[in-house]
Design brief:
The complex is a heterodimer. Chain A is mainly alpha-helical. Chain A contains 13 helices and 2 strands, in the order ββααααααααααααα. In chain A, a hairpin with a 4-residue loop joins β1 and β2. Classes of the chains: A mainly alpha, B alpha/beta. Chain A: It is found in: Cell membrane.
């Protein structure tokens, strides 16, 4: 633990957490450069860098900035948004399983999107449907879990129940859709970055520009204290219910906008905060490291999805799902060894 | 409506100020002492189950007040109400003459500290880190860790004897050590009033005495007002300077232990036949339960 002090200012930080966060940023950037250079038309990393900073040929510029950059930026933003939402949820419910994909918010976003697909709506309408579905699910789970305040276990149980119901609804909606629409919807539900344009990235970027500062400024310190129990936090001067509501709303919105941009990509929200915690070895919600690690996971998963099977692109959700499932098994195995599960 | 409430509020304030005198006539023979914290005509309820009705208490300043009573008599509920964790259904908890519910929560946290019955130590947190979180009500976004914070955390750890454990993980510690660490955390909050909800539960007798000695020292050396909920009547009688005996959500007796702990009171409140003798160590009342009559003996 180190301290930086000025006249009226003092900031505490952990050197290891700062180093880890910097490493995440570098890795994310490297993955971005590699992804921008790969594809049918390969471009060397050095050329990619030159193009990004304004140099390069016209052709390179067109491919890198016009064709590939929107997809990569979407991947970065989606990863960061999901991971931040996951870190907030896991901290709130004090449980590593308390992530938006477990609590039904991504299912809800999928339901919203599917309703639009069945009704034959456009891509933009689909994104709006996803946001609306996620937010509606968030409100529903909150109301179901409310009893003199919302507590961790009730939120998880209500979320799992809602999630199960919604996955049934989603299956039904898929059978009702036209064949073409159903195929498009299925790809979206798996989580995909194919053909993402600036129109997909911009709404998410705007949402994050508002929500990320809200979470970091108003909730971060309070979340640290709330990890010690609601009573302790209240005794230390935290307005527990207000912080919880703010954090929940922000996290649900982040999840919904991310799902609108790339579909309900699984496991990034679940794994990033836990991995970040293990790498920084810092207690607390680890919001900023989680966010960057989410961006790393998402860009790397996208890179892998494009190249894992030669000549065939996988939806990114398949890769994150496989990675996340493996991670969950590992968590279970190490937890069992430590006698916790 | 709003004026009604205002009238009521000032009434209650009045009552809060007069409380020590009104109580003198009824239940509190000794306490004419000033009181920063108290509750007037409190109705306390959980989920519609009423625990206490028309309950009034005053915590004398600079006292070591101990609340005792049989299980489910409302001890912890009262403590939660006094620390504004539980909103009374009726009545007011008054802190420094103001309804505590109207004060900003951070401001209250600089005056009243609370060690709840259950706290959660986050995974892998170190002792020093946990204790430093007690500084939360004094910190801000830009002022996260001043020299004063650092010094107070060091002092709190020294006062509770956990300085040597500073870099250990809290989950590796024994129950007694952990309770000291949590006590250090509320100490770091630097509040003139400190509420402790059953601080000795789950500890063996040596560690119970250890924690209570620590509390007594905090009370005597630093002039803090301490309020603790305890289960053990004898420990309460030994350490308290002011005892509040609750029974079915009502104050059965309150005052100095020497004056109020009698065999009749124990029988009336706990339904236990006993003798009350003088504690040979401290001279305080000692409750000795009556022996079981063995058949044939």
């Amino acid at each position: 633990m180190r301290v930086l002090r000025g006249a009226a200012l003092s900031v505490r930080y952990r050197p290891r957490a700062v180093t880890a966060t910097a490493v995440f940023a570098v890795v994310a950037f490297a993955a971005v450069v590699l992804t921008l250079g790969s594809g049918d038309y390969r471009i060397a990393p050095a050329e990619v860098l030159r193009t990004l900073f304004g140099g390069g040929t016209v052709a390179d510029h067109f491919i890198v900035v016009q064709l590939r950059l929107p997809r990569v930026v979407t991947a970065l933003l989606v990863g960061a948004a999901l991971a931040l939402a996951g870190a907030v949820f896991q901290s709130l419910v004090r449980n590593p399983l308390g992530s938006p994909d477990m609590l039904g918010f991504t299912e809800g976003a999928a339901t919203g999107a599917l309703v639009v697909v069945v009704a034959g709506g456009s891509s933009a309408a689909l994104a709006c449907g996803a946001v609306a579905g996620g937010v509606a699910t968030g409100i529903g789970v909150y109301v179901l879990a409310w009893r003199r305040g919302v507590h961790g276990y009730r939120l998880i149980l209500a979320g799992i129940g809602v999630s199960a119901i919604l996955s049934g609804v989603n299956g039904y909606l898929l059978t009702k859709a036209q064949l073409m629409d159903a195929t498009r919807a299925l790809l979206w539900i798996t989580g995909s970055l194919d053909g993402r344009a600036w129109a997909d990235a911009v709404p998410l970027a705007i949402a994050m520009a508002v929500l990320v500062p809200v979470v970091l400024i108003t909730c971060s310190r309070a979340l640290h204290v709330m990890e010690m129990g609601d009573d302790t936090a209240a005794a230390l001067g935290v307005s527990v219910e207000r912080v919880r509501l703010t954090a929940l709303v922000a996290a649900v919105l982040l999840t919904s906008f991310a799902a609108a941009a790339a579909g309900p990509v699984s496991f990034v929200a679940l794994t990033s905060p836990q991995l970040a915690k293990r790498l920084t070895r810092a207690p607390g919600p680890n919001l900023i490291p989680s966010m960057l690690l989410g961006a790393v996971l998402m860009t790397c998963a996208d890179l892998a999805a494009q190249h894992a099977i030669p000549g065939r692109q996988l939806p990114v959700g398949v890769v994150t799902g496989v990675l996340g499932g493996g991670y969950l098994m590992w968590l279970l195995a190490t937890g069992r060894k430590a006698g916790r599960i | 409506m709003s004026t009604d409430r205002k009238d009521q509020h000032s009434d209650l304030e009045e009552m809060g100020r007069d409380m020590s005198t009104t109580m003198t006539d009824t239940a509190m023979p000794e306490t004419t002492a000033p009181s920063r914290l108290g509750g007037t005509a409190l109705t306390l309820a959980y989920d519609g189950r009423t625990v206490a009705e028309d309950l009034s208490v005053a915590i004398p300043d600079r006292s070591f007040t101990v609340i005792v009573g049989p299980n489910a008599c409302g001890k912890s509920t009262l403590l939660r109400a006094l620390s504004r964790l539980l909103k009374p259904k009726a009545g007011t908890v008054v802190l420094d003459g103001t309804d505590i519910a109207t004060l900003p929560t951070k401001q209250v946290a600089r005056i009243v500290g609370l060690l709840p019955q259950t706290s959660i130590a986050p995974d892998g947190i170190t002792v020093a880190d946990l204790v430093s979180r007690g500084r939360h009500p004094h910190q801000g976004l830009l002022r996260q860790w001043s020299r004063q914070d650092e010094q107070i955390v060091a002092e709190s750890m020294a006062a509770t004897g956990v300085t040597d454990l500073a870099d250990r993980a809290v989950d590796e510690l024994s129950g007694g050590q952990r309770q000291r660490v949590w006590t250090a955390m509320v100490l770091a909050q630097q509040t003139p009033l400190l509420l402790l909800d059953e601080p000795t539960t789950y500890l063996d007798i040596a560690h119970q005495v250890d924690i209570l000695d620590l509390c007594a020292r905090l009370h005597e050396d630093e002039g803090r007002t301490l309020v603790a909920v305890l289960h053990d009547l004898n420990q309460a009688a030994r350490y308290a300077t002011h005892l509040i005996v609750l029974c079915d959500g009502r104050v059965a007796a309150c005052g100095r232990p020497e004056e109020i702990v009698t065999a009749e009171l124990v029988h009336q409140v706990f339904g236990l036949t006993c003798r009350v003798i003088e504690d040979p160590e401290s001279g305080t009342p000692l409750v000795v339960p009556g022996a079981r009559r063995r058949s044939g003996a």
